[in-house]
Amino acid sequence: MATSEFVSSAIQRQQVQRAISFEGLADRVVAQEEGVPLNTPWTFWLERSMPIATAAEVEANLEEIYTVKTVENFWGVYNNIPDASDLPLRFSYHLMRGNVKPLWEDPCNAQGGDWKFKVQKQNTTKLWKEVLLATVGEQFATSISPDDEICGVSVSIRNTNDVIQVWNRYSRFSEQASIVEKVQTLTPDIDFRATFYKPHHQHDSFEKNRP
């Protein structure tokens, strides 16, 4: 991507992100620090995706929203940020375990991949909520290899169908998993337009040797 295009995209991102305000969120959630602890902390992220972006450009387009550590934290954030279906086109929410960033090249993701679920827009909010609850409740743990781990989940707003993803740590264990079946049990009334798994390293823009 040319420098001028990157700057233009960054300006556009800043303009749109100002419309997606998280101002005051910490004040509304901080009072809920005590409560039922989650198994691990989880961090909400916002991303504006760009075509053919480098890892550095993707990282520059990430905004860390809040790290939740309790059930009360989670609901405090979920209920005080825009609904996924209200995000602008080509924006995404991510919920990642601990300090893991929603980057293919992150050390916790580099050997992994994700299951993708293409869903009609009227079903995005419902599916995203169910996937989030299953994630923080560690419900996917029984649907993957004992040697694998769920690193995060994402929802991406696209032109026709939106995309929800479940990220795992090791792509070599993907064939042993039953994530698709698990997600289908969460929302049996939703028909997916497509479901498939893809290792991160198979993407053309994956930067293998990125530190």
From TrEMBL:
<dbReference type="GO" id="GO:0000340">
    <property type="term" value="F:RNA 7-methylguanosine cap binding"/>
</dbReference>
<dbReference type="GO" id="GO:0003743">
    <property type="term" value="F:translation initiation factor activity"/>
</dbReference>
<dbReference type="Pfam" id="PF01652">
    <property type="entry name" value="IF4E"/>
</dbReference>
<dbReference type="InterPro" id="IPR001040">
    <property type="entry name" value="TIF_eIF_4E"/>
</dbReference>
<keyword id="KW-0648">Protein biosynthesis</keyword>
<dbReference type="GO" id="GO:0006413">
    <property type="term" value="P:translational initiation"/>
</dbReference>
<dbReference type="GO" id="GO:0016281">
    <property type="term" value="C:eukaryotic translation initiation factor 4F complex"/>
</dbReference>
<keyword id="KW-0810">Translation regulation</keyword>
<dbReference type="InterPro" id="IPR023398">
    <property type="entry name" value="TIF_eIF4e-like"/>
</dbReference>
<keyword id="KW-0396">Initiation factor</keyword>
<comment type="similarity">
    <text>Belongs to the eukaryotic initiation factor 4E family.</text>
</comment>
<dbReference type="GO" id="GO:0006417">
    <property type="term" value="P:regulation of translation"/>
</dbReference>
<protein>
    <submittedName>
        <fullName>Eukaryotic translation initiation factor 4E family member 3</fullName>
    </submittedName>
</protein>
<keyword id="KW-0694">RNA-binding</keyword>
